[in-house]
Amino acid sequence: MDVPRGKAYARNKKIRRVVYIVLGLALVGGITVVLARLQPAAQTVEKATVVIDVVKRGKVEIQRRGLGTLVPEEIKFVTAMTSGRVEKKLLYNGDKVTPDSVILVLSNPDLQKAMVDAESQYISAKAAFENRRVEIETQLLGQRAGAAQVKAQYESAKLEAESYEKLWADKVVPEMQYKQRKMAAEELKTRNEIEHERLAKNTEAMNTQVAVARATLEQAKLQLEFIKSQFAALNIKAGINGILQEVLVQPGAQVTAGTSLARVSDPKRLKAEVQIVETQAKDVLDGQRVEIDLRNGNGFIPGRVLRKDPSVVNGTVTVTVRLNGELPPDAVPGMSVDGTIEIARMDDVLYVQRPTFGQDDGTIKLFKLDPDERFANAVTVQLGRLSVTVAVIKGGLQVGDKVIVSDTQQLGDTNRIRLN
What is the model's pTM? Predict the structure, then answer.
């Protein structure tokens, strides 16, 4: 027989239902909270495909690097000294030359005629000078002879007067004869002085005439030498030891004085011209240390910044470097090189391998590895100065931290990754 349930049973059932509902709501709320706190699933990145570096502390060299070429320190432009027509081309680009090596031969008919005229004028001037010199010397010889004759007469009259003075004193000859001899001697003395003075003035005048004739001869000689030098300049010579870089004219061309005909350089005296990115060139100063890599396995050549071009071409600035080391035999103009310029040295700073992106004194997002190196989390890093291979760290990292420095832009806004 069925026993009817009491009121207590119904009340207990109702309580159990309320408890079940409360427990269900609590379970749903807890699951919701847990799900809300869960992070999105981390993207997986192959560890072998990224570059990882460890943050260190120590000395850092701030450098700038660029591509460049070797160029001659001095390029000599060989120019025409006179106008003419290019008749022959004796040497070609790349030929070794000495100062007397003839590169081109010019012709100039007008210069040839001027050469003949100058030689004729010089011969005539020389003959005229010699003729005038002989005439003057003959005249001077005659005047010297006349002066010598008067002097001899004076000396004779002087001796005669002195002898008559003694005779007159001894009362041997009359006083009149003595005075006559004395007056004759005095007259010849005056004539002798006049003749010597005349000879001196005539000698000076004739020397002046010889000097005029000699000046005319020297002028003709200089004119001839000038024409000869112009004629010799028709043979265009290199002027220095080196290599003929380029001949700028071809046979048959008509050139004028001052026209550039060829370029010659000394291959043993080279410098480097390095192209530095415009944004990095602002730190380059004259005198800074440079290492030039010739890319031939012979090591580095030390140098110093000689000057920086003030203009920008295609986003780069040309920096000229004077080389201080000995160049290998295979170093030639036009050879490609790498140049590394030392901008500054910093002591006791945090640094890491230079990230793919980032600028001086900027901020960048890097992924820092967890201690177990299974996950990496994004952190904001304050950069200092950037060098060719390293970056100074101002904040966001500590010594020993491991960070991914390769490009992670493909990960988008992800802040956590898993490393396989």
Answer: 0.57
